[in-house]
Specification:
Layout (H helix, E strand, L loop, with lengths): L3 E4 L3 H13 L3 E7 L6 H5 L2 E6 L10 H11 L3 E3 L9 H9 L3 E2 L4 H8 L1 H10 L15 H11 L3 E5 L8 E4 L2 H19 L4 E5 L5 E9 L5 E13 L2 E7 L6 H18 L3 E10 L2 E8 L6 H8 L3 H9 L16 E8 L11 E2 L3 E2 L6 E5 L6 E2 L6 E9 L2 H14 L1 E2 L6 H7 L3 H4 L7 H7 L2
Parallel strand pairs: 1-2, 1-4, 2-3, 4-5
Antiparallel strand pairs: 6-7, 6-8, 9-10, 9-12, 10-11, 11-14, 12-13, 14-19, 15-18, 16-20, 17-19
Length: 446
C-alpha cells in the first residue's frame, strides 16, 4: 500500500480523498495555488506545497509543479481527483514515467474514452448501444447533411474532445445546420483546443442515466447500480439520485450487466462511469468518464462501499474483493450540488462566508471544504458543497432532504440552496417525472 499520496486537486474532492487516505493510514500532501492557501484541504493535509498563482493553468494544470511537489514530499502516488488533470492521459503517463503511481485507469483507456468519436467506436465494439450519428468527425455542412438525412432531424453537434455541455449545438432543420456546426467548432476550439465535431440524432425527452463500474487488475469488474442525473441546466448537473425513478430492477440489472461485461472485455482497471441517454426503453451511450464522479457519494450511500478507498486499493495492486452477487442497493439517496451562484440568474457569487451551519441528523452527509470566515475565490468552479441524503425509500429521502435544505445556512453569499427548495416543491420532481430538459423548460423557464 502507498505511504504518501499527493492530491492534485482542491475543494471538497481533495478533502474526500484525504479522508479516505487517513482512514487507510496513508499520509497526504495537498498542492494548492496561492488563492487556496487557507483552504480546508490544505489545513487538514499532513503536508502542503504551493504550486503556483491562482490561474489553473499556472497551478492545478501545471504538471511540472505537481511532479515537483511529489518529489520534494517523497510521495509514491498521485490522486488526480475530479476535473483538472483527472482525465489527461499524458499526465497519467508522465506520472508513471517518473516512478509514481497514477491513481486511476491506464493512460490508453483515458485517451480512448477522452475522445468522444473514438469512445463511440469503442463502445460499439464492446457491444454498448450508441445514438445513431456520424462515424467520425464532420468537417463540412455537406458531410453533415448526408448523415442528417440518414438519421433524421433534429440533430446535435458535439465537440469530439468536449465535455460539460461545451461545444454542443442543436439543429432542427437543414437551414440551421451550417450555423450550428460553425458555432460548435468555434466553442470547441476555444474550450478544448480542438475544433473537431461530430453529429448525432437529438433525442427529445431522454433521461440521463449513468452506470458506476469498478474493475481491478485481475479482470474482476462489477457495477454498482445507476445514478439518474437528468436534472440539468445547460448540460450541467444540478441534482442526482439513485436508484432512478424511471428504471425497474430488471432494467437496472440488465444495463448494469452490459456495462460490466463491456468493461471486462475492455480490460478496465479503476473507477469508471458509463453515461447513457435513456428514452422509450432504450439506452444510448453518451460517454465514459474515467475518473471519480462528483456524484459518487450517492452510490456510496446505497451500497456501503467507499469508492475512493477501492480506487486507491486497486491502483496499489489489490484485488477488488467483492463479487456482483455481494453488491446490494439499500434505500434511496439524493445529492444536491450547492453552488456559490445567484439561484435566479446563476451569476457566480464569490466572497467571504460569514455564517455557516451545515445540516445534520440521521442519513445526512455534507462533502464540502467551506467554513465560517472562508473566502471563496473567483478563479474556480462555483461548486462549494454537496448535500447528500439517504433514506429507506424515496419518500423518506425527499422528506429528509427538505429538512436538511431548511437547516442549511451559508451566509453573506448567494447559493443555489433556494433552487433546490423550489425543486422539492414541484409535483413532477416529487413524482419522479422529469427528463434532461425539464428543469429549464418548467422550473427555470430560461
Amino acid at each position: 500500500m502507498f505511504k504518501k499520496i499527493v492530491i492534485a486537486n482542491r475543494g471538497d474532492v481533495a478533502i474526500r480523498v484525504q479522508r479516505a487516505c487517513h482512514e487507510m493510514g496513508i499520509k497526504t500532501v495537498a498542492v494548492h495555488s496561492t488563492a487556496d492557501s487557507s483552504a480546508m484541504n490544505v489545513r487538514l493535509a499532513d503536508e502542503s506545497v504551493c504550486i503556483g498563482p491562482p490561474k489553473s493553468k499556472d497551478s492545478y494544470l501545471n504538471i511540472p509543479a505537481i511532479l515537483s511537489a511529489a518529489s520534494i514530499s517523497g510521495a509514491d502516488a498521485i490522486h488526480p481527483g475530479v476535473g483538472f488533470l483527472s482525465e489527461n492521459p499524458a499526465f497519467a503517463q508522465i506520472v508513471s514515467d517518473h516512478g509514481l503511481t497514477f491513481i486511476g485507469p491506464k493512460p490508453e483507456h483515458i485517451k480512448v474514452m477522452g475522445d468522444k468519436i473514438e469512445a463511440k467506436k469503442m463502445a460499439l465494439e464492446l457491444g454498448i448501444p450508441c445514438v445513431p450519428g456520424s462515424d467520425g468527425a464532420i468537417r463540412t455542412t455537406d458531410e453533415a447533411l448526408l448523415v442528417a438525412k440518414d438519421i433524421g432531424f433534429p440533430i446535435i453537434v458535439k465537440a469530439a474532445a468536449g465535455g460539460g455541455g461545451k461545444g454542443m449545438q442543436i439543429a432542427f432543420s437543414e437551414t440551421e445546420l451550417s450555423n450550428a456546426i460553425k458555432l460548435a467548432q468555434s466553442e470547441a476550439e476555444a474550450s478544448f483546443g480542438s475544433g473537431e465535431v461530430y453529429i448525432e440524432r437529438y433525442l427529445s425527452n431522454p433521461r440521463h442515466i449513468e452506470i458506476q463500474i469498478i474493475g481491478d487488475k485481475f479482470g474482476n469488474v462489477v457495477h454498482l447500480g445507476e445514478r439518474d442525473c437528468s436534472l440539468q441546466r445547460r448540460h450541467q448537473k444540478i441534482l442526482e439520485e439513485t436508484p432512478s425513478p424511471a428504471l425497474t430492477k430488471k432494467v437496472r440489472n440488465d444495463i448494469g450487466a452490459l456495462a460490466a461485461t463491456a468493461m471486462k472485455k475492455f480490460g478496465y482497471e479503476s473507477l469508471g462511469t458509463i453515461e447513457f441517454l435513456y428514452e422509450n426503453g432504450e439506452f444510448y451511450f453518451i460517454e465514459m468518464n474515467t475518473r471519480l464522479q462528483v456524484e459518487h457519494p450517492i452510490t456510496e450511500m446505497v451500497t456501503g462501499i467507499d469508492l475512493v478507498q477501492k480506487q486507491i486499493q486497486i491502483s496499489a495492486g489489490e484485488p477488488l474483493g467483492i463479487s456482483q452477487d455481494e453488491v446490494s442497493l439499500k434505500g434511496h439517496s439524493i445529492e444536491c450540488r450547492i453552488n456559490a451562484e445567484d439561484p435566479e440568474n446563476f451569476i457566480p457569487s464569490p466572497g467571504k462566508i460569514v455564517d455557516y451551519h451545515p445540516p445534520g441528523g440521521f442519513g445526512i452527509r455534507i462533502d464540502s471544504g467551506i467554513y465560517a470566515g472562508y473566502e471563496i475565490p473567483p478563479h474556480y468552479d462555483s461548486l462549494i458543497a454537496k448535500l447528500i441524503v439517504h433514506g429507506q425509500n424515496r419518500e423518506q429521502c425527499l422528506s429528509r432532504l427538505q429538512r436538511a435544505l431548511d437547516e442549511f445556512v451559508i451566509g453573506n453569499i448567494k447559493t443555489t440552496i433556494a433552487l433546490h427548495q423550489k425543486l422539492l416543491s414541484t409535483k413532477n420532481f416529487i413524482d419522479g417525472e422529469y427528463d434532461i430538459h425539464w428543469l429549464e423548460k418548467h422550473l427555470l423557464k430560461q
